[in-house]
Write a sequence for this structure.
């Protein structure tokens, strides 16, 4: 990922290979386990200094989730009582798949500063696809609707719409946007 240039070395290495994660839990990326286990807030962001420990913990939860270690990500995200922590928790449950629980966490998120950017990214990705009744809302929405996206992911997962590849691309864009937001705030950018 080109946007990793401003991340510390541990995160750059963990994000070097793009992962178009499934809408459900995938097999943990065991090759990354040692690097993930070695992550510590005190050193993971060096040479930068952590200014916001909650945002730093969000970054840790995010990379565990990126590599499909759900339990490890969940242990971290469930203890972060911020909108960003709830956002990561909601993404995890959306992929679990546990739509009800995901919606609970997105209710706790409320509105998030990354929603406008996620809205634009989702619209652009949807515009590149053949039109579909199920994905039409992505083209029309003026604000990100995480609940509609949860429903779309559920529909795609069950095979009721061919939107599964689109959902995965939106999920990756959302992950990147939220991770970047958390990383920048963790180090005070």
């Amino acid at each position: 990922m080109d946007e990793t240039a401003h991340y510390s070395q541990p995160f750059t290495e963990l994000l070097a290979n793009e992962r178009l994660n499934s809408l459900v839990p995938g097999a943990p990326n065991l090759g990354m386990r040692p690097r993930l286990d070695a992550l510590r807030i005190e050193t993971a962001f060096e040479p930068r200094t952590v200014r916001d420990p909650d945002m730093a913990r969000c970054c840790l939860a995010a990379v565990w989730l990126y590599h499909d270690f759900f339990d490890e990500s969940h242990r971290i995200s469930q203890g972060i009582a911020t909108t960003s922590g709830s956002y990561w928790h909601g993404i995890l449950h959306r992929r679990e798949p546990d739509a009800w629980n995901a919606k609970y966490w997105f209710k706790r998120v409320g509105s998030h500063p990354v929603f406008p950017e996620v809205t634009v990214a989702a619209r652009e990705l949807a515009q590149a696809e053949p039109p579909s009744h199920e994905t039409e809302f992505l083209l029309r929405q003026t604000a990100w609707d995480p609940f509609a996206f949860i429903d779309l992911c559920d529909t795609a997962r069950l095979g009721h719409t061919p939107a599964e590849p689109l959902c995965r691309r939106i999920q990756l864009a959302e992950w990147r946007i939220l991770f970047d937001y958390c990383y920048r705030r963790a180090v005070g950018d």
Notes: The chain has eleven helices and no strands. The radius of gyration is 16 Å. Residues 2-16+25-186 form one domain.
